[in-house]
Known about the structure:
alpha+beta, 8-stranded mixed β-sheet, globular
Amino acid sequence: MFDSFPHGTSERMDRPAYHADFRRVYESGIRHLNKLERGQNFKERGFTSWEAFAAGEWDRALSLIEEKRDVYARQFRTAARLGILERRLRVVEFPVTPYVQWELFVLRLRVELGDHIRVLDARDITDIEQSRPVPEVVILGDAALYEVLYDEDGNAAGANRFTDRALIRETSADFDALYERGDDFHAFFDREITPLAPPVVVH
Length: 203
């Protein structure tokens, strides 16, 4: 899976350029957005819930997630207006990292509002990841594929942009196959996340 991806030709974009290009392509008539999220530790500075989580204020972090309700609801209304089906596959390693434990509460709100998210146990794809992890990608129809980049500290750092249609089709097909293997979000959350104690954040 994703065999051609490491050899593809891409254009490196910093974060502002990536966001601008994403918005342009998103509104260009695509019909689906697929996101594969693989990393287990990211930083989301500026998101008040994440800031509380990073400060070790678990209960406050969870309550602040609600601040995103209107933002996410508008996002999904826009997707519906444009006729875009958005799907996300979240790969989770065990034991679950504090960041992923927090993030799944955020994703639970997104699912409540209409996002299509499935969760994949990393232990179920060890055969696929023998030489390298599955890529961290966002696919916009057949128009653009972004490998999302992060710095060593887990901060968003832009993306590599791919436009080769054959590569995008192959990566999309591999995403589809993994998405079908993923767990229903609520089933995974109730089974694996609900029983967990509040995480201890180590700085």
